[in-house]
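So, can you check these C-alpha cells?
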Amino acid sequence: MKFSINTNGLRNHYSPAQIVQECLKAGVDGIEWGLNGIDTAEKDAAEMRKLTEDAGLEILSYINAGILWKTDDIRRWSDAVLAGGGRILRVAHPWFAWDYNESVHQPDDFMTLVEKSKEGMAKLMELGKEYNIRYVLETHKGSCFASPLMVPLALKDFDPRYCGVIYDPANAVLEGFVLPRIAVEVMKEYIAYIHTKNLMFKEGRTPEGRTKLDFERRTVDNGAVDYVELMFALKLHNWDGWFSFEEFVSKDPALVADEVKKVSNT
C-alpha cells in the first residue's frame, strides 16, 4: 500500500511548495492535488508536477474538476492533468441533497440524475482513451454516489481503466453505509483509491428543534469506521493501492504531518 495527502485542507494555509514539504515531513509516498479553478488549472498542475517530482514523490491524482457531463469543460481539465503528469482526475459527482432542507428544493428525482451521470460517463470513456486518464467519482454524502452499492449500478457498463471511484468509508457511514466487505466486493476494480479519515456521530438539533445526527472528526483509530475490518475486506480481494488522508482532526495545519505519520506507521 501507498499513502498520500489530500491538499484541499492545506491549500488555504500553505503554498504548493510548502505542502510538498509537509508531505515529506509526514513520510507519505504521494500527493492528491486539489486544483483551484479551470482557468489556472494547467499552469497550477505544471507547477505541482515539478514540485512533486523534484521531491521524489508521486502524483496520486488531481481533484476538484467540473461536473462530469460537461464534456467540453472536462476536456480543459484533462489538458491540465496531462500538463501535470496525472493519470486520475476526480470529476464532480451529481449532487442530490445533503439534508432535508436541500431535498425540498431538489427538482430532479434521484434516478434521473443517475442516468444523466451515466450518459456523461459514456462520453468520458472516449476522453479517457484519448488522454489516458481515469475519471473518478467519490462516495460522498449528498451525492448520487453516497452508497458503494450505486457504483456497480452506474458504472458496470464502463471500462474501469477509464472510470472509477474514490471509496470514502467515512463518507459512506454518513449516508448509504454498507459493511466494508460488501462495499469492496461490489466496487472491486472500480476502486481507484481510498480516502482515509474517521468520524463519530453525536446528537444535534435542527433550528426548528427536531433531533438530527451530527458528527465530529475523529482519529483513524477512534471512530465509526473500523479500519481493521476495512483492511480485512481489501485483503480478501487482493486490493493493495493508495490511501489518501483528508479532513484532519488537527486544527493546526502544522500538526497534520504528525497526525498522518502516526497512522501510516501503524
Summary: Residues 22 and 254 are 8 Å apart (CA to CA).
